[in-house]
């Protein structure tokens, strides 16, 4: 009998032993009820420049943390946590700040087998920053002793925590995919975004019985602009907790559950997640309101500062504050007498701000009675069109306006382009698509209007609208126009199709583009053909498709400019991509009929070139110049400035030129018979960040051209485009383990002054054109935090003023000769880092600034051999 009982007991004992090992692997000794342990706590926080981390700015917090277990069973404990003697010191230096007394008030945390299930505060004691800090400390007591993947909440968010043991007492925890509300706003274009690199981990040591001895937790964050690998800020926080070794007795609570204690003590329960009030009461620039800030920046916004970095930097200062401004203040600025001279820039500002208040303020200026009024109205609409924070209400209002009749065709056109572009950007926002209600409404409006057009001018306007909307559902309509409409409409439709992402072109579309390029069933305008070719080449033809394209060179097609254009584009692609170059060489060499001088050196002046515009240490950008010529003069030309990051690119600015009927003045070429009876016209088409604007016509009709030629009105440099627009426009928050919430922001702006001059002499049979573009670019960012202990920030910026001169000389006294020159004067880039800290309880922020100036060489872009020959020829005359 006795032995049976003994056996039974032994069995039960070993069973309970196994169970307890399984259930609570070694927490056995952690948090004994009725005892309190003291820990040394230190948190070192610093921020700096990612490129040079030798200089740090930040602060150190020290405190003693008492952790008493006031209630508990085997698995669950109620911890009473008391912070005492907190102090804060700056890095570098020994400036001492003061700490809010309410930090010392104890708070509670419920602990269950290594997990913290909640925290409890006395009501109306600590502010949100105090509680966030306390949550950060409580979270240090959250740890597991079995390797594996856990989900844990702490001030960093809801994270995946992976535990790896190095020994029975030493562990490593790495946290990833922490979810918190980042309130992220970012541009859709990859090169204009910013990135966040994060590493979060902890190393800890426990006693053989599983009680926490030491915890070192670290967060490291790097915030970088995509365009400038070197430009960014980092934040690092290391929290270290180490047991002092003395154990004291502490009073315990006799209640039956934690809930009862919470009720008894009248505590407020909370989670470990933080919910910071992010929008700080005031923002940078000494916390000025929009009116003061505007007064300070006014001098940088004058007309003569357009195209300078002062104006791009001023816009960046104003926009964040402008987004919080009231309608009355914005209106006051706009209506001030002293604003008259800089109203254009104010319209840029309101368009960049993109709030309802800014829209209401700007609407009072949307008039077109005079040329000046029209200019201002268009400035606003064009700025709004490239803004990356479109709002539904504003789109609805634009749609409403677009439905009305406007007596100014220019205003009506610009309004449609603004509506279409804003809607396209709205469709890209997270949670939206081309099926979103308001987007569908705008698409229906544009397509219905287009179908109702009776005149070509009307069609161009709405086709351009579809170009800016870039909705895949309109491609069938555009393709039909490209294939069937009269020549000029077909070209406009092809231009629109060229703007779409190449990923939507399936085999069916590809064969239609081939139909146009090869003129399978009917002749097409040469521009429609070169545009179709652009798309076919963007689609990365394989070797057999490439051989097929090359057949055009051998064919008896008389359009030698199209052949020249093809050859130029192939050479351009080959220069960019070695694999394509190899394919091209193979295709040519394998065909003896192809590989000869007559075929490979067609006559014609069309060119396609790609040249670097900017490289390290600045951003990577290139210029692509495509010039389709006809009868010795330009027919369709574009110079595109593209920002490049890795394999992604985005257009910053495109200067397009078009001319029709001009060749009649220059030569009588057999190729142009179909253009002979055409209207004479020339103009410019600009696209800002991918948004095409209404064309700017230089002249229309032979009479007007002759007028220009004789009177010389076109011979003065005339501003063609002036504006300041936003580039980067990103914002997000980051939650750190110590309860701090980081504010991350990247902003950029570009100020452009483009002016042009054309002179033409029918006597001398020559023409010259000069286009000068002055650009100011500011790309900036900041990382800041505002905690219980300090306000800490690092701001960085890269500022430069690249310029671009494009001249061309055309001589048509004999065989037409065209000489183009593309020049970039040397310039500088200034990179600046500013770190500031203001410790709590002190008055003066400490600011440290470092700046570096890089000299960037000027460039004279070698165009091509043929161009050089012709420049020499023209120079000799
Ligand atoms: C980093 O900054 C420090 C202090 O401004 C300077 O002395 C050092 O040369 C810099 N290092 C690099 C690599 O730029
Ligand atoms: C810029 O181009 C250089 C050289 O091709 C490359 O090493 C660098 O990574 C590029 N920078 C960016 C931001 O893409």
Account of the protein in words:
The longest helix is centred in the N-terminal third of the chain and has 22 residues, at 2-23. It contains 24 helices and 29 strands. The N and C termini lie far apart (127 Å). It has 877 residues and is of the alpha+beta class. 45% of the residues are buried. The site of one 2-acetamido-2-deoxy-beta-D-glucopyranose has 4 residues, from loops. It is found in: Endoplasmic reticulum.
Short description:
It is built from 24 helices and 29 strands. The chain is α+β, with helices and mostly antiparallel strands and 877 residues long. Bound molecules: 2-acetamido-2-deoxy-beta-D-glucopyranose (NAG) (2 copies).
Calculate Rg over CA atoms: 34 Å
The poorly predicted ranges are: 7-24, 668-673
Structural class by secondary-structure content: alpha+beta
The portion of residues assigned to helices is 25-40%
How much strand content do the residues show?
35-45%
What molecules are bound to this protein? Answer: 2-acetamido-2-deoxy-beta-D-glucopyranose
Cα distance spanning the termini: 127 Å
Number of helices: 24
* Major sheet attributes: 13 strands, antiparallel
Principal-axes geometry comes out as elongated
Report mean pLDDT, rounded to a whole number. Answer: 89
Number of strands: 29
Main traits of this protein?
877 residues; alpha+beta; nine-stranded antiparallel sheet; 29 strands; elongated; binds 2-acetamido-2-deoxy-beta-D-glucopyranose; MTTP
């Amino acid at each position: 009998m006795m032995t049976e009982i003994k056996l039974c007991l032994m069995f039960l004992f070993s069973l309970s032993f196994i169970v307890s090992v399984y259930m609570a692997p070694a927490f056995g000794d952690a948090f004994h009820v009725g005892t309190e342990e003291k820990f040394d706590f230190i948190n070192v926080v610093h921020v700096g420049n990612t490129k040079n981390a030798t200089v740090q700015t930040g602060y150190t917090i020290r405190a003693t943390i008492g952790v008493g277990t006031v209630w508990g069973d085997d698995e669950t404990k109620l911890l009473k946590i008391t912070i005492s003697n907190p102090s804060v010191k700056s890095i570098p230096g020994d400036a001492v700040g003061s700490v809010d007394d309410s930090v010392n008030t104890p708070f509670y945390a419920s602990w269950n087998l290594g997990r913290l299930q909640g925290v409890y505060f006395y009501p109306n004691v600590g502010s949100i920053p105090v509680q966030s800090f306390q949550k950060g400390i409580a979270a240090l007591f959250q740890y597991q002793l079995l390797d594996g993947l856990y989900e844990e909440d702490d001030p960093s968010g809801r994270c995946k925590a992976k535990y790896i043991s190095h020994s029975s007492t030493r562990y490593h925890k790495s946290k990833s995919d922490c979810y918190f509300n980042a309130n992220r706003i970012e541009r859709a274009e990859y090169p204009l975004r910013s990135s966040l690199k994060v590493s979060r981990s902890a190393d800890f040591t426990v006693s053989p019985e599983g009680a926490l001895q030491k915890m070192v937790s670290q967060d490291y964050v790097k915030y970088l602009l995509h365009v400038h690998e070197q430009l960014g800020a980092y934040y690092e926080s290391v929290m270290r907790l180490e047991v002092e070794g003395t154990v004291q007795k502490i009073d315990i609570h006799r209640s039956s559950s934690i809930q009862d204690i919470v009720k008894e003590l009248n505590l407020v329960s909370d989670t470990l997640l933080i919910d910071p009030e992010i929008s700080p009461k005031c923002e940078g620039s000494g916390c000025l309101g929009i009116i003061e800030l505007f007064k300070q920046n006014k001098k940088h916004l004058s007309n003569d500062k357009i195209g300078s970095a002062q104006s791009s930097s001023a816009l960046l200062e104003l926009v964040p504050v402008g987004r919080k401004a009231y309608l009355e203040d914005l209106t006051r600025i706009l209506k001030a007498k002293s604003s008259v001279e800089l109203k254009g820039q104010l319209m840029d500002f309101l368009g960049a701000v993109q709030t309802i208040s800014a829209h209401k303020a700007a609407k009072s200026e949307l008039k077109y009675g005079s040329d000046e009024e029209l200019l201002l109205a268009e400035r606003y609409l064009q700025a709004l069109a490239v803004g990356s924070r479109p709002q539904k209400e504003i789109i609805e209002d634009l749609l409403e306006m677009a439905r009305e009749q406007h007596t100014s065709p220019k205003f009506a056109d610009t309004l449609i382009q603004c509506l279409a572009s804003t809607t396209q950007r709205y469709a890209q926002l997270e949670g939206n698509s081309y099926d979103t209600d308001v987007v569908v409404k705008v698409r229906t409006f544009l397509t219905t209007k287009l179908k109702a057009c009776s005149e070509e001018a009307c069609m161009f306007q709405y086709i351009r609208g579809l170009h800016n909307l870039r909705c895949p559902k309109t491609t069938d309509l555009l393709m039909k126009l490209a294939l069937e409409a009269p020549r000029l409409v077909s070209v406009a439709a092809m231009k629109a199709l060229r703007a779409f992402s190449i990923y939507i072109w399936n085999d069916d579309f590809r064969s239609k583009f081939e139909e146009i390029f090869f003129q399978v069933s009917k002749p097409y305008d040469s521009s429609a053909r070169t545009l179709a070719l652009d798309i076919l080449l963007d689609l990365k033809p394989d070797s057999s498709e490439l051989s097929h394209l090359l057949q055009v060179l051998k064919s008896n097609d008389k359009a030698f400019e199209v052949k020249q254009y093809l050859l130029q584009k192939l050479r351009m692609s080959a220069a960019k991509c070695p694999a394509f170059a190899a394919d091209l060489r193979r295709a040519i060499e394998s065909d003896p009929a192809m590989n000869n001088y007559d075929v490979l050196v067609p006559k014609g002046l069309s060119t396609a070139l790609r040249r670097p515009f900017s490289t390290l240490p600045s951003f990577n950008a290139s210029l692509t110049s495509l010039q389709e010529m006809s009868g010795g003069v330009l027919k369709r030309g574009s110079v595109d400035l593209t920002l490049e990051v890795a394999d992604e690119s985005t257009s910053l600015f495109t200067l397009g030129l078009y001319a029709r009927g001009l060749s009649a003045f220059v030569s009588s070429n057999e190729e142009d018979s179909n253009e002979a009876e055409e209207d004479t016209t020339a103009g410019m088409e600009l696209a800002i960040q991918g948004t095409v604007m209404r064309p700017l016509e230089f002249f229309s009709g032979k009479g007007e051209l002759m007028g220009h030629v004789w009177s010389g009105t076109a011979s003065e440099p005339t501003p063609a485009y002036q504006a300041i627009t936003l580039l980067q426009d990103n914002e997000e928050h980051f939650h750190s383990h110590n309860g701090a919430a980081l504010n991350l922001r990247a902003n950029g702006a570009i100020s452009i002054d483009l002016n042009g001059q054309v002179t033409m002499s029918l006597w001398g049979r020559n023409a010259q054109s000069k286009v000068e573009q002055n650009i100011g670019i500011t790309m900036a960012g900041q990382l800041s935090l505002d905690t219980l202990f300090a306000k800490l920030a690092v701001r960085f910026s890269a500022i430069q003023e690249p310029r671009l001169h494009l001249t061309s000389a055309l001589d048509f006294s004999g065989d037409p000769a065209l000489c183009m020159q593309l020049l970039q004067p040397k310039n500088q880039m200034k990179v600046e880092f500013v770190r500031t800290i203001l410790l709590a309880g002190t008055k003066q922020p400490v600011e440290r600034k470092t700046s570096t100036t890089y000299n960037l060489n000027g460039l004279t872009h070698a165009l091509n051999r043929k161009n050089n020959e012709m420049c020499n020829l023209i120079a000799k005359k």
